[in-house]
Write a structure and sequence with these properties.
The chain is of the alpha/beta class and about 260 residues long. It contains twelve helices and six strands. The chain has a six-stranded mixed beta sheet with strand order 1-3-4-5-2-6. The N and C termini lie far apart (about 50 Å). The protein binds adenosine-5'-triphosphate.
């Protein structure tokens, strides 16, 4: 695997514990944690094929893709879909084949395709805008997904389901499709705890219910950014980040969801 290649090996391995929310997905995965082990093989369980996770930016899809590989105990390859396309005629198809070969050579492994919808520009309009390349690449990808024999578990993440061709969502390709929404108040509480621990502070020293109340419509990424902002403020004051710093940082932030709402109304 060369630097600057189509796929990269990701070594950071957060666990499912590092994610706030995603309960149905966590349950699904925990049930299949040993699916790539020998006991499951002997039992005759089929190797799971893959997951499609769709949701707005910053809700933890990337974090989840990484946690999938640590749950299965498999190496993680990340494919930058944008890099597959381009070059001379036929190059995109060749790129996809090379990615598949790499993943199959490393299998069992997890292949994470980030922002998969990016690759499929034009495919929903019949693939005319790029001479049909994205349709062809997309077709080969789907055939491989359906027929693959090597244990390559695919995690595809997407921000916008409307950009994905309907064939993609049909049963048989992915085992499950999970939609991720803005976190609920309970999920925000868990995310605050995780984020505070991640930044080496003790959640018990914060008024979590208050923090949850002030960050309505925040994504996990926005919660983390607000905590980091609070740390900088506190550091400049020669203090530890306290509730007031965090609440002020939250107040300074306009979450993307609220911004979008105000543009629609
Ligand atoms: P994008 O589509 O913009 O890549 P994403 O949905 O993949 O967004 P992440 O990159 O996983 O989101 O989230 C960014 C950061 O925000 C994570 O590294 C994590 O620190 C924090 N975060 C987001 N959602 C959660 C969550 N549900 N639980 C814990 N941390 C979260």
């Amino acid at each position: 695997l060369k630097r600057g290649g189509l796929v990269e090996v990701i070594s950071s391995a957060p666990s499912l514990e590092d994610i706030g929310g995603y309960d149905p997905l966590k349950e699904w995965l925990n049930r299949r944690a040993g699916a790539f082990g020998t006991a499951a093989r002997h039992y005759g369980l089929p190797a799971p094929k893959g997951l499609l996770i769709v949701g707005i930016p910053g809700t933890g899809k990337s974090l989840t893709a990484k946690a999938v590989s640590s749950t299965f105990g498999l190496p993680l390859l990340r494919l930058d879909m944008g890099r597959v396309f381009g070059g001379i005629i036929g190059q995109s198809e060749a790129n996809l084949r090379s990615v598949i070969q790499t993943a199959e050579a490393i299998a069992p492994c997890v292949l994470w395709i980030d922002e998969i919808e990016k690759g499929f520009v034009g495919s929903q309009s019949g693939g005319t805008s790029d001479g049909g390349t994205s349709s062809r690449v997309f077709g080969s990808f789907l055939s491989w997904m359906q027929e693959k024999e090597k244990p390559v578990f695919v995690v595809a993440t997407a921000n916008d389901v409307s950009k994905l061709p309907p064939e993609f969502l049909r049963k048989g390709r992915f085992d499950e499709l999970f939609f991720v929404d803005l976190p609920s108040p309970e999920e925000r509480a868990r995310i605050w705890e995780i984020v505070i621990c991640r930044h080496r502070r003790n959640p018990a020293t914060y008024d979590i219910p208050r923090l949850v109340r002030v960050c309505d419509q925040f994504t996990g990424a926005e919660i983390e950014a607000a905590f980091v902002d609070a740390m900088f403020e506190a550091y400049a004051e020669g203090d530890e980040p306290k509730d007031k710093h965090v609440v002020e940082a939250v107040t300074r932030t306009i979450p993307l969801a609220r911004l979008m709402d105000s543009q629609i109304t």
